[in-house]
């Protein structure tokens, strides 16, 4: 069955088609939900909520652009909506922002698992902006619009996220150096 046929059957609320769509895209969308969630359980909740939205709004997909991209936007927006509703963002006066450039020694290898773990441990407002900007390539203006914050707040949160990550990496490096002594 073609994707267009599958979408049409989902529009008609055919549970077999909905199940097939879920099987096709749930792992990709779960990885997105995990990136924007505090933990695994919250990511599962966000995935479920995203699919509820997908099935409720699938008739709005106009077969223009990538269907997978449309699904991903819904997953991201579902996770972000949870944070907007919780008021995790504080608005920052743009005149008081200090942008800090951060560099990591190229000769130091860290595992992707460790990096993902420390990103996951960031406070919500920092993790969301970091993921949107660094991992997904959104501009500060786009992030500000998505999160209903100012571009200055987005820039400030990104700078703070980078500083926290550097501090954690430096602490990790120091613990490895002390173990090797």
How would you portray this structure in words?
The protein has 181 residues and is mainly α. The chain is 70% helix and 0% strand. The protein is built from 8 helices and no strands. Helix 2 packs across helix 3.
Short description:
The chain is 70% helix and 0% strand.
Radius of gyration: 19 Å
The separation of the N and C termini measures 61 Å
User: In CATH, what is the homologous superfamily of the largest domain?
Assistant: Winged helix-like DNA-binding domain superfamily/Winged helix DNA-binding domain
Mass-distribution shape: elongated
User: Helicity level, as a percent range?
Assistant: over 70%
Succession of helices and strands: HHHHHHHH
Largest sheet data: none
CATH architecture of the largest domain: Orthogonal Bundle
Number of strands: 0
Protein name: RNA polymerase sigma factor
Pfam family, one: Sigma70_r2
Family: Belongs to the sigma-70 factor family. ECF subfamily.
Domain RNA polymerase sigma-70 region: 21-87
Which terms would index this structure?
elongated, 8 helices, Arc Repressor Mutant, subunit A, 181 residues, Rna Polymerase Sigma Factor, Chain: A
Summarize the topology.
Elements: H1 3-11, H2 15-35, H3 40-57, H4 67-86, H5 112-120, H6 124-135, H7 140-147, H8 151-180
Helix pairs in contact: 1-2, 2-3, 2-4, 3-4, 6-8, 7-8
Family: Belongs to the sigma-70 factor family. ECF subfamily.
Keywords: Sigma factor, Transcription, Transcription regulation
Domain RNA polymerase sigma-70 region: 21-87
